[in-house]
Amino acid sequence: MLEYLKKFERIIITSLIAMMTLVVLLATVELGWIIIKDIITPPVFLLDIAELL
């Protein structure tokens, strides 16, 4: 029973790590997309304070 519980715990921890990694990766991609989109819209290469925050 204890061995089953340890395997279950290991599966839960691994799945949580994978989901957290996915969330961080997607958030980074989204932030990069927003920054690139703001940089290429006129005026080019000019970001005001509202776009930086």
The ordered H/E elements are: HH
For the largest beta-sheet, the strand count, sense and barrel status come to: none
Q: Which structural class do the helices and strands define?
A: mainly alpha
What percent of residues are in strands? under 5%
In DSSP terms (H or I, runs of 4 or more residues), the helix count works out at 2
Q: Give the overall shape, derived from the CA principal axes.
A: rod-shaped
**Overall pLDDT, averaged?**
92
Distance between the ends: 51 Å
Overall number of domains: 1
| Low-confidence region ranges | none
Q: Kindly state the number of beta strands.
A: 0
Oligomer category:
single chain
- Whole-number radius of gyration? 20 Å
User: Which bin fits the share of residues in helices?
Assistant: over 70%
Structure notes:
This protein is an all-alpha fold and 53 residues long. The chain is built from two helices and no strands. The chain has one domain. The mean pLDDT is 92.
For this entry, give a set of tags:
2 helices, mainly alpha, 53 residues
Topology summary:
Blueprint: H1 2-40, H2 49-52
